[in-house]
Amino acid sequence: MNYVDGFVCAVPTANREAYLAYARGGATMFKEAGALSVVECWGDDVPEGKLTSFTMAVKRQPDETVVFSWIVWPSKEVRDAAWKKLMDDPRMDPKNNPMPLDGKRMIYGGFATLLSV
Q: Long-range pairs for 12-17 at CB < 8 Å and ≥24 separation?
């Protein structure tokens, strides 16, 4: 079964185009490293929660939009090898390619596929 890396972050709404350019560059690198697909979603119906929510998880500010993204890999082994390689890629260095968002508020994780239909 495939393996998925998932991400949720808050992006300044004014940085939408900068984020899209950043995401396109990332997608190119992930695909070169073996990813099957990369999906970036710009929030347009992300409700506030009472106990928890996407907005609360990333401490979204009024001038920010929640982004939900995932990368599909053929396996965890391919993903692990890819990330090792990607961490040495100068295109991933924030000095060369700064993120148009506050990366400290990003949440992410790796997930084994349980069901795919």
A: 12/63, 12/64, 12/65, 12/100, 12/101, 13/63, 13/64, 13/65, 14/63, 15/100, 15/101, 16/42, 16/65
